[in-house]
Amino acid sequence: MKNKFPPLFTFVGSSGSGKTTFLENLIPFFTKKGFKVGAIKHDAHRFEIDKPGKDSYRLKKAGSNQVIISSKEKVALIKTVNKDMSVYELILNYFNDVDIILTEGYKKSSIPKFEIYRIENGKEPLCFGDSNLVGIVTNGEVSMNNPVFGLKDYDKVADYIISIANLGGVEVKVDCEDELVKRFLEEKISMVKFFKTVKNVKVKVEFD
């Protein structure tokens, strides 16, 4: 199943370790190389993004199961769910047009993970010894078999991820006169490029 998804890595660490800050500075190193990045922040607590008084809040409170806010720059979806969706459900539903996904959290998952470990935080490491740990980002001395990076080694972490993530240059091309249909098919078909045996995908659409 893993080959059906974009390469996926998660960053874990105690509260105050700087996970979000590290990801914020890491992502540009991928985008500069031409990769489309998806990001997921897992929150174990309840959160609210559509504030009282906003149009989206009013429509949701009126009884809509889901509300989409759309503009020429971005689209936002607010949807009622009855369970904590798994990271793989989120990817299948919302991340079909990215090259790599970086998440924050999911410390108990089997996702390849980096731990951000800040010494002055005064807390014990969360995942040292985890078989899914692929790297440690820290400002202290750590004796581990895993690669160890500094808190500002964004470029080194990005290069390391690229080296182990099988980020190949598979071409996905759709020949179609209808631009809307073309974009739709390119987004849906793009997921097959993560099968290791796929080299190129070409589709031709003809209309009556």
Could you explain how this protein is built, in words?
The protein has 208 residues and is of the alpha/beta class. Helices cover 24% and strands 23% of the residues. Strands 2-5-1-6-7-8 form a six-stranded parallel beta sheet, with helices on one face. It has a two-stranded antiparallel sheet with strand order 3-4. Helix 1 packs across helix 4 (154-164).
**Morphology:** globular
Helix content: 10-25%
- Tell me the total number of β-strands: 10
Element-by-element helix/strand order: EHEHEEHEEEEHEHE
> Given the helix and strand composition, which structural class is it?
alpha/beta
Strand order across the largest sheet: 2-5-1-6-7-8
pLDDT < 50 stretches: none
The proportion of residues in beta strands is: 15-25%
Radius of gyration from CA coordinates: 20 Å
Query: Oligomerization state of this entry?
Result: single chain
Global mean pLDDT? 82
- End-to-end span in angstroms? 37 Å
Number of helices: 5
What is the gist of this entry?
By secondary structure, the protein is α/β, with parallel strands linked by helices. The chain has helices at 19-31, 55-61, 87-94, 154-164, 179-189; strands spanning 8-12, 37-41, 66-70, 75-79, 100-104, 113-117, 133-138, 148-149, 171-175, 200-204. Helix content is 24%, strand content 23%.
